[in-house]
């Protein structure tokens, strides 16, 4: 959970297969960092030991970008698997969405693999990293 993004974790009752939805509202800081990524952390302690997550989604609302209107954006999600003091953190690719900067609506990224790892090794939750880039690799600005 970050201080600049409001997030909710919702679990379906235990009678149903476990489904975890991560809903993140607009984060004004995204796109104003170098490099062009934002990290998110979530508290999964409400999921009992021994429970399996059958699906986990990261949802973020995309508002249209006027200054990049006709550009293509690549929004990718990675799990941080190991932080390094002398180089970039080790990342595991989770999902990628390609869209137009002028598009508006919910982006849904599959993070099931990350939630599975977190439940197996609860002390190893190093978060998710969301990247936004244009087709030529430049920072894409705010996605939502």
Automatic annotation (TrEMBL):
Keyword Disulfide bond: yes
GO CC field: extracellular space
Coiled coil segments of this chain: none
Pfam families the record matches: TGFb_propeptide
Keywords: Disulfide bond, Glycoprotein, Growth factor, Secreted
GO terms assigned for molecular function: cytokine activity; growth factor activity
InterPro entries, A to Z: TGF-b_propeptide (IPR001111), TGF-beta-rel (IPR015615)
The species this protein was found in: Chlorocebus sabaeus
All copies of domain TGF-beta propeptide, residue ranges: 32-136
Keyword Amino-acid biosynthesis carried by entry: no
Superkingdom field: Eukaryota
Name under which the protein is recorded: TGF-beta propeptide domain-containing protein
Similarity comment text for this entry: Belongs to the TGF-beta family.
Compartments in which it is found: Secreted
């Amino acid at each position: 959970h970050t201080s600049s993004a409001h997030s909710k974790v919702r679990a379906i009752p235990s009678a149903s297969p476990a489904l975890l939805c991560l809903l993140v509202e607009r984060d004004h800081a995204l796109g104003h960092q170098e490099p062009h990524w934002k990290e998110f952390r979530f508290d999964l302690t409400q999921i009992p030991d021994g429970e399996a997550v059958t699906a986990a989604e990261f949802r973020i609302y995309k508002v249209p970008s006027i200054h990049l209107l006709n550009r293509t954006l690549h929004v990718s999600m990675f799990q941080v698997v190991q932080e390094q003091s002398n180089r970039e953190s080790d990342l595991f690719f989770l999902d990628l969405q390609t869209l137009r900067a002028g598009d508006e609506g919910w982006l849904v990224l599959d993070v099931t693999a990350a939630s599975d790892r977190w439940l197996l090794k609860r002390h190893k939750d190093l978060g998710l990293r969301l990247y936004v880039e244009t087709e030529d690799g430049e920072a894409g600005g705010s996605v939502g």
